[in-house]
Amino acid sequence: MADTLLTHRLAARLGVNDNDDDKGFLAVHSPYTGEAIGSVRVTPATSIAEVMDQARRGRTAAAAMSRAERAAVLEGAARLMEQRAESFARLITAEAGKTIVQARKEAARAVNTLALSAAEARRNAGEVIPFDSYAGSEQRQGWFTREPLGIIAAITPFNDPLNLVAHKLGPAIAGGNAVVLKPSELTPLSALRLVDTLVEAGLPQDVVTVVNGGRELGAAVITAPEVRMVSFTGGFATGEAIARTAGLKKLAMDLGGNAPVLVLADADLDLAVDACVSGAFWAAGQNCIGTQRILIARERFAEFRDAFVAKTRQLRAGDPGDEATDVGPMITEAVALAAKAKVDAAIAQGAVLLCGNEIDGTLYTPTVLENVPADSALYREEAFAPLVMLEAVDSFEEALARANAIDFSLHAGIFTTSLDHAMAAARRLEAGGVMVNDSSDYRFDAMPFGGFKYGSMGREGVRFAYEDMTQPKVVCISPAGRL
């Protein structure tokens, strides 16, 4: 009953409609069945003045909240989400196509993200400054506090429609900011339910302004002078457009990756195969830290390849609501077709298909290739699809060089029993995270998360996003008569 009432409040407050008869509403479709599962009110780009009016009210309301009040809201929302975890998970499955098993894990992570944000609100208030460490300032005392930036624009993608929103909202609220949130047009329902849950937990309604729409709306939001920071997770082209047009404000961007995993000759092959199959095909490969290139010591290549392909063939693609499904649909048929087209092009260039590359609507079967040309688009770009490339290497040095050959990098992995090789890889792999004896696809929501080289700016992870979303203010007290 409580969840039903929540849905009714959500519909009344945020404009969710049961049909798409009104041109002012945007239908949300199941990636698997194609049926409309709801709709959201479209925010015209021309209404940006009203949007910013609400955001300014939200900024005032957020700034008036004490740290204890912010923490209480975040903790309360985390408890409500935990109580309704199955409902959140089923909504993720319905709108994003994640398998129900994967969606439950995302819902649990989002609960933890809000709990971590509550702790940050209480903990990270600033520091004492040792003025007396500098000659001539021995009599001065002071500190710095962490103050809100003001209004933050948050733009989120479809692939983690709940937890990636929590990673924007949680740290922003903990820091005393207001947020203009633009969730993916494909998956806005989880975001809206999260916002409504925060309001139910006591957050003043104006603190988070949700807008739904396309590029024109996004451009209007990011260029608004009152917006002091844009936090964006999404594609490279959109990230470049934001950087060109946002103006003088902070930018935090996670723009994707092309993750390499090294499997050395001394690796535990059973562990490596299991972890890399999961890392490559989790969330139908629509995962910025998903394993895309596996670099395997030549003497173990055939053994790894045969075991990897055999395990991949066991994966079941299908209905994401079925507990037995391993790989759900891609978000749209168009992106599934685009993934297949890239694979077909690579095969035409000489790549060898080991399994997969079959398409049925939005379902794209888990795909494994070898001998993919290094100059192909498939090799050099982020695939964001359930496909992986296997590659034999003749030395550790070659593996490192090939792993680092791509212009952007979020995570990397290495399987080895050698501490020397593990530590060397940790130093030399050009990535924001190096996972030892695990695939690239591991993230703990408290750790710093972001990429190296082209395509990433700043870090997520609750503490690190919180610090990006706040600014230091120094207070220095001089003894009377010593100005």
Automatic annotation (TrEMBL):
**Which InterPro entries does this UniProt record tie to the protein?**
Ald_DH/histidinol_DH, Ald_DH_C, Ald_DH_N, Aldehyde_DH_dom, ALDH-related_metabolic_enz
Keyword annotations for this protein, in alphabetical order, are:
Oxidoreductase
What positions does the domain Aldehyde dehydrogenase occupy? 24-475
Pfam short name (any one): Aldedh
Family membership noted in the UniProt record: Belongs to the aldehyde dehydrogenase family.
> What's the name of the protein?
Aldehyde dehydrogenase family protein
